[in-house]
Amino acid sequence: MPINSKQKGARGEREFANLCKEHGFDVRRTQQYCGNTGDASDCVGLPNIHIEVKRVQALNIDKAMAQAIHDSEHKNVMPIVAHRKNNAKWLITMRADDWFKLYQGSRYSNNTD
Description:
Blueprint: H1 5-22, E1 28-29, H2 30-34, E2 43-44, E3 49-54, H3 61-72, E4 78-83, E5 91-94, H4 96-104
């Protein structure tokens, strides 16, 4: 029996939440965390990050990112799209300006500003 898109989306959200937990972050599906919270994020637990999770073979990344940006605008948080295809690793897509902000403050950056 084929899995419907809602079930596949929920499975993808659980997979991504588990990946975050493997890296030490207490992330949960929004629905699972506290029912209908009014938060449009698919997962919660990364402060100041809006998480849009997509678990599809053919992702329209522009549409997914536009959704993440739209859903995050009123909250002043950083939108990301966490996505993966079957038999592939998770990827994170974000705006370049946001990536530079993260990189600038990371241990990998030699920027001393």
